[in-house]
Amino acid sequence: MKLKNLTTLLSNALGTHINQSMLATSLGITRQTISNRIKNDSELTVSELAKVEKYFNVNITNQAKGLSSSDVLIDYYPDVFASCGNGAIVFSEEKEVFSIPQKMFNNYSRSKKYSMIHSRGDSMTPFICDDDKIIVEHSDGEQIIDNKVYVFCYKNEFFVKRLSKNVDEVIIKSDNPSYSTRIIKEDDLNELFILGMVVGIIRTV
Fold it and tell me: Which one is the CATH code of 3-64: 1.10.10, 1.10.260, 2.20.25, 1.10.3470?
């Protein structure tokens, strides 16, 4: 398995955040060595995995099995729904690790953070259907790209919609013509928080 995936596996198995310094301590090497190996996309050896499991007193071997070099481990929130209709609350923040083939991402970048949640409603059909799993590339302060689909929070409700930005307003659009276009005016823009852009969709047939 890739060394870069190890902190995510450990964090989810232990229920607490494991950083590179802690990982370096468990392996008996420096944090800089860990950082360099991650940058070089280094593989974790079987003996190293055993050493980590012993140090943290956890078994993650089964989670690590079956991952190909192109798999991406991301946080999956099975009980979090983003609304494709009239808004939906967040039911839970419990998460698990989900392995996704890199080909499922649009323009995957190792420097980006990703999560996966459910959609709810039909306002974005046929692009996004009710109960699709959607992969979100987290926003890092980037400007809105016109007509891209985003997951965002507005007035404490989560949505997934197409967004466009004018000088002093944001336009919220649905793909389903049954839903009307909404506009967030300048005075309300401080209540808009963009989680990120939708870069992948997983649909159960």
Answer: 1.10.260
Whether the model clears a pTM of 0.90, i.e. scores above it, the answer is no
Tokens encoding 39: 């940058």
Look at residue 157 and tell me whether its pLDDT is greater than 70. Answer: yes
Q: Which contacts qualify for 59-64: CB closer than 8 Å, 24 or more apart? A: 59/13, 60/9, 60/10, 60/13, 63/9, 63/13, 63/97, 64/1, 64/5, 64/9
| CATH number assigned to the domain covering 71-202 | 2.10.109.10
Please spell the DSSP secondary structure of 57-94, one letter per residue.
Answer: T---HHHHTT--TTEEEEEEEEEEEEESSS-B------
What are 179-202's pLDDT values in tens digits? 999 999 999 998 898 989 999 999
Do residues 168 and 94 lie in contact, with contact meaning Cβ atoms separated by under 8 Å?
no
Most distant pair of Cα atoms in the chain: their distance: 60
Domain locations in the chain? 3-64, 71-202
What whole-number distance in Å separates Cα of residue 203 and Cα of residue 205?
A: 6
Q: Are strands 157-165 and 96-101 parallel, antiparallel or unpaired?
A: unpaired
HEC string of 5-48?
HHHHHHHHHHCCCCCHHHHHHHHCCCHHHHHHHHHCCCECCHHH
